[in-house]
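Form 7-S
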Amino acid sequence: MTIALVTVDTELSAGLFQRGWDAHANFAASILGRTAKGDFGIGWQMDRLDEHGLKAIFFIDPAPALVLGGDVIARIIDMVASRGHYIELHMHAEWLTWAENPPIAARATNVGDLSMADQATLLGWGRDLMERLGAPKIRAFRAGNFGADDATIAALDQLGILWDSSFNPAFAGDACRISLPADSIDPVGIGAVTQMPVSGIWASPGQFRPAQICALSSREMGEALRHAADTQRPCFNIVTHSFELLSRDRQRPNRTVMRRFVAMCEAIAAQENLASGHFADVPETAETPPTRLSANRWRTALRHGEQALATIFYERRA
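Output:
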């Protein structure tokens, strides 16, 4: 059985905060996905997941509590916990910039820009806060912007956090400085921490395209999931965000991305050798060599056309 890891980076927007949005407005736009046509954030996502009998992992960022207070983070945790989905730790270090009483003195754009000691303190603070606010025991982490390094893994090891999902080959060598080959596919142990790389496909020979809802067409995602199951991969690690179903200005639902989310749920639910789950459900070993779905020019061209139309219909300003 291949485990489809549906992971949702669930975060308030530092950009909206800088533009003067208060905690209520930021929560409505970034978490509820509120628009004039309805809400299309994590509630909508959980409705679709529940309809298909799937569980997702919500990586929740507690860092905005440094600026906006813990109540808004507690509300996010309660939304997810009450629906029975998994909760894990996310962290956008840029919130340190505006914090009056941060857990560390240093400031950084990404977690991996900090020293190992500061990373351990910051991540320990985030873990403890989330658990105090009602989250179950934190067992996994993903850095905001995939901005982690080898010191991040050491800090997680020190904190007893068992899984990290900060390695995204699309960011390797840039924000992501974890020392793994860019073609890493299957989970890999780094000390006591198991790294769970973000999955993807070859969009063209040598060009990686991550398994993100806004990055792959429904056809690409469906074929990638089937390929992972058919080649007996331990898991296929999908990324989305709490606000990903909206236009970039967060004013309108993006119906193309919404259809992709539903199609992903259908693809997982329909295939007997696929199941959604947590990192703890992933088999420890694989009996077949790891491969990615190979490039297909027609499939890539169809996505380009689809995304061009989505930009015209959903990204234009009213």
